[in-house]
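[step 3/7] fold_predict: job queued, chain A
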Amino acid sequence: MKKVKKSPISGKISETQKYMETKIGVGTSYDVGFREIVILKTKVQLYYLTGLVDSAIVQELLKELVNLNDHEKNRKKVPEIIENRLLHQQVDPIKSMDEAVDQMLSGLIVVFIDGEKFAFVVDVRSYPGRSPEEPDTERVIRGSRDGYTENVVENTALTRRRIRDARLRHEMLKVGERSKTDVCISYLQDVADDGLVQLIKDKIEQIEIDGISMAEKTLEEYIVKRNWNPYPLVRYTERPDVAASHLLEGHVLIIVDTSPSVIILPTTFFHHVQHAEEHRQVPTIGTFIRWTRFLAVFASLFLLPAWLLFVLDPSLLPKGLSFIGPNDEGNIPIVIQIILGVIGIEFLRMAAIHTPTALSTAMGLIAAVLIGQIAIDVGMLSPEVILYISISAIGSYVTPSYELSVANKVANLFLLIATSIWGLIGFVISVTIFLLFLASIKSLRTPYLWPLLPFNFKAMVNILFRVPVPLTKSRPSIVHPKNNYRQP
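[step 4/7] structure written:
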């Protein structure tokens, strides 16, 4: 980012007041708090944002400072006396007006003293927000019910609660010329690869934008730069236990203030098909759940194109499976029926997002009973088309990662169109192109299909089976951990 010359703090408090009035709108913006008091015949000014600080703490600080007039007499040590009476766990001196403004807009109190070319910042942030609760998209039968919130301070605390290691690092950066959004990089100092951490830092520090109102999503597009690639190159989670598990493997977390979603880097395709529920069950059940999920993801991708291929060319079916195919094709070509059905499912998904909870059940009944049955009765869709579209849709909802499920729908449409135009040749070529495309993707220099390509037998076993924790003694080699062994 471009280096900006910082304005030093003036020794005259009247000039400081004029600067703050011009810069942040003291006296104009109602939420900018300002209070001037006199301590031992020295003017002291406090600046803060009323919506981001605890008013009770502000009142307590003012009371302590005003009481100095009754208990102190040494005017030559006013700064030292004030610093000792700022009764809070984090009090730091600063020497530039730019830093003072940034800190105040982040929710800290800034204290200026007449005649001094420095100021004190007191961290009394109290961000508005909800309490930690289980995220809707990552529910488990057994396990913790807390989840990340929109408060970056709470989020780092939720992570720290699970990893009480002195080597856990939370480095804070700011992004956005106007928004100045807090971005925290979390990693284990003796585990995470130094090159990976530095690469992520450099990418964040090079961001030049006025603000990241869409929080982590905007940040992702600057870090991985996937352009028009629909497949997710980072993993999102709102569960602290999932984030902590990845930290212990050697991954790096990016926590953005105002967002409950934490970015995990680097990630592969197989990271997006794993879920916390698998690790909350015994290895046998966890493996069964994982294979069931793999089957659902496979069905969401290839079931419709394969069924369409058999409909277009029934000779490809063995005699035992000759029943596959529509008994009544209806009035519309099968491929058009499938595309209409897929688009209709998307209509329902988007409608469910925007429908109030009290009406969502009624909407589901209308969609399932009325629309589906009427579409069959009028000959618009055949029953078999609705069956296979439903199975494919359920497979996409079983996919743990929402971003991956949407990307798979785009790939599914590509395979459908290619199969409908060129038949068997189109199906084979489109599947090949799809696999080659996934193999060519990299997330922060990490192969997307690892450990399948390049093949790593030990890591592939851990992907296919939920291996018992006592047998998992090494970290994934793809993150290049400095300390490879998890257990002595």
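[step 5/7] annotate
The longest helix spans residues 402-440.
The chain has a mean pLDDT of 89.
exit 0
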